[in-house]
Amino acid sequence: MSPTEIGYLSVVAIIVCVYLGFYIPIALTGVSIVAIWMLRGDMELSINLMKIAMSDSVMEYTFATVPLFTFMGLVVAKAGMGSDIYQVMNAGFKNIRGGIGMATVGANGVFAAVTGSSIASASVFSKVSVPQMLKYGYNPRFAVGVVAGSSVLGMIIPPSAMLIIYSFVAEQSVGDMFLAGVVPGIMLTVAYIFAIWFMGRFVSQFVGGTKALDQSWMPVKEIVEKTAPLIGLIAIVLGGIYTGWLTPVEAGAAGAACGLIIAFARKKMTLKIFWQTLIETGHITASILFLITAASIYSRMLGIAGLPNELAVVLEENQMGIVATMAIYVCLMLFLGTLLDTASIILIVVPLFLPLIEPMGLSLVWFGIVTVVGAEIGLLTPPLGISCFVIKSSLDDDRISLKDVFLGALPFAFVMLVVLILLIRYPVLSIGILG
């Protein structure tokens, strides 16, 4: 077989392995090692390249952002800040049909700014928001769909684990990726709220529920008490990075320390919970570390096979410009989203297309935002739809099936697609903030 054929076969083999249930880093690493062995006929070279990939990836200073932001997100979730911001949002939208859904989206957007995890958001708000919506007669599909749709904000609004993974794969600044994710995250939040208003106005049977909640306006003092800690953390992390006072690593450390202080001050953190949080942080960090290492050796294998260059030649021969290239890219991500999780899509597809995007003069930061938003749609689509599975397992309610969760999330997946098209058409929406 030719090097190109081996390269194509390796990509297919990786997708098949992941779909069959292989652990993603093992699938990437194993297939890459075998492919390099077939390309060069030297197993020792494959092992040496794996050693180089490990040292080049996880030894970077910026990798420290992963455990720090992970720890901060876990501490914030355990401190009950997600529930607090949800209560405030609920009071603000209480007189609007679909108001609880809007409150869920708004709270998820703010919560995402310190957790960076769609899974954490889905777990927290499925327990907080869905029962209340069912209490007020909302359509169960709408209730779980809102939580599923808004949970993806955790992977777009910085600090985001997916933006960190992309920054390592594409060798971009973590700080630039975080800043570029701010406007798209706000855009998606506003688009979700508008979509809920539209559905409440014109498709009220899908939304259901009553127009108003039986609760009084929240006093200003209580609003400040519930929102100040979270807003303070956001200001420290994103404000520190944007002003240049803090590097992403320093911002993660400052956010983690402040979050821990708040959790202890609220008496939500005991030594036992603290130890459990450290262990959980270690598990998540090790998992991401393994992913990044596997992606590094996978990228090297593609380079040896010459697959990116081959794709560039094919696109050039068929006179495909930026629009056609991005259309193919988005379609590929949407297809893979029905089978793979977000991290897998980023690690498999990005190394293939990066060498094609850079010569076109396109921003790799913008390309990263497009990649994450496109891949995140997969969290809402069957059969894998991780956010949908998390919500179903968190609710443990026989009245709501997995099918209900997927159908409820469908309108929000469509909204994400519209926002994705806007981000592709107008790159300034994501990279304009970088000046």
TrEMBL record:
Main localization category: membrane
Entry annotated with the keyword Transmembrane helix: yes
Q: Name one Pfam family in it.
A: DctM
Q: How does it sit in the membrane?
A: Multi-pass membrane protein
- Parts of the chain that traverse the membrane: 6-39, 60-80, 100-121, 142-166, 178-203, 223-242, 286-307, 327-357, 364-385, 405-424
Q: Per the record's keyword annotation, is Ligase included, yes or no?
A: no
Subcellular location per the Swiss-Prot or TrEMBL entry? Cell inner membrane
Task: Please report the stretch or stretches of sequence annotated as the TRAP C4-dicarboxylate transport system permease DctM subunit domain.
Answer: 11-427
For this UniProt record, the keywords arranged alphabetically read as follows: Cell inner membrane, Cell membrane, Membrane, Transmembrane, Transmembrane helix, Transport
Q: What family, per the record?
A: Belongs to the TRAP transporter large permease family.
* Subunit structure, interactors included: The complex comprises the extracytoplasmic solute receptor protein and the two transmembrane proteins.
Q: What does this protein do?
A: Part of the tripartite ATP-independent periplasmic (TRAP) transport system.
Entry-linked PANTHER family: C4-DICARBOXYLATE TRAP TRANSPORTER LARGE PERMEASE PROTEIN DCTM (PTHR33362:SF5), SIALIC ACID TRAP TRANSPORTER PERMEASE PROTEIN SIAT-RELATED (PTHR33362)
Name of the featured protein: TRAP transporter large permease protein
